[in-house]
Amino acid sequence: MSQKRKKALIIDDNKANRFVLEVVLKRLGFQTTTQKDGLAVVDTLKESFYDLVLLDISMPVLMGDELCAQIKKAISKDKLGVIFAYTAHALPADKEQFMAVGFDDLLIKPINLAALREKLQKFNLIV
To answer: What is the pLDDT of residues 53-111, one digit of tens each?
Structure first.
């Protein structure tokens, strides 16, 4: 019996970043969906469960930390997968701020495959 593929939602205003994450996550066995901004993300998450949400912090329309707070407010915990922030902001104070708004973990750009695998394993999203 085949195992159901996990679903990942990638939100980033940068097309190249979306593409890279999409390729990497597909290779790791995920079914992916991408969005270029946060405007429709809450609706998307209400319509379908995603095991993983990768959310860029610095976006022009709606910043990732603001969007994460909206997601956490609008969607119950049992209907929401893991949310990772990814950003170039790597200071400890930045991580504390991101975790405080509800992110489950943080990835630093450029995304390192080993770090991504480690975080996915930590949350039992891959073996």
So the answer is: 999 999 988 899 999 999 999 999 999 999 999 998 778 788 888 899 999 999 998 88
112: burial class by Cβ within 10 Å (0-12, 13-18, 19+)?
A: exposed
Q: Which residues pair with 54 in a beta bridge?
A: 10, 84
Which residues, in sequence order, are CB contacts of 65 under 8 Å at separation 6+?
57, 85, 97, 98, 101, 103
Q: What pTM was estimated for this model as a whole?
A: 0.92
33 close to 77: Cβ distance less than 8 angstroms:
no
Structure tokens that stand for 22 in this block: 């999409």
User: What domains, with CATH codes, occur in the chain?
Assistant: 7-122 (3.40.50.2300)
What sign for the dihedral angle of Cα 20, 90, 84, 71? negative
| Residues 28, 126 contacting (CB under 8 angstroms) | yes
